[in-house]
Amino acid sequence: MASDPGEKQGKSIHVEPTG
């Protein structure tokens, strides 16, 4: 989900690579 604060910062907090 792009709404995650982790993906916004580029740091995958959870195991779900978006690319």
State the gist of this model.
The chain has 19 residues and is mainly α.
Structure characteristics:
mainly alpha, globular, 26% helix, 19 residues, 0% strand, 1 helix, single chain
The helix/strand class is mainly alpha
How many strand elements? 0
Strand content: under 5%
Give helix % range: 25-40%
End-to-end distance: 12 Å
Number of helices: 1
Task: Please outline the major beta sheet.
Answer: none
- Shape assignment: globular
**Element-level helix/strand string:** H
Rounded to the nearest angstrom, the radius of gyration is: 7 Å
Q: What is the residue-averaged pLDDT?
A: 60
Unreliable runs: none
Tell me the layout of helices and strands.
Blueprint: H1 5-9
Structure description:
- The protein has one helix at about 5-10.
- The longest helix has 5 residues, at about 5-10.
- Helices cover about 25% and strands about 0% of the residues.
- By secondary structure, it is mainly alpha-helical.
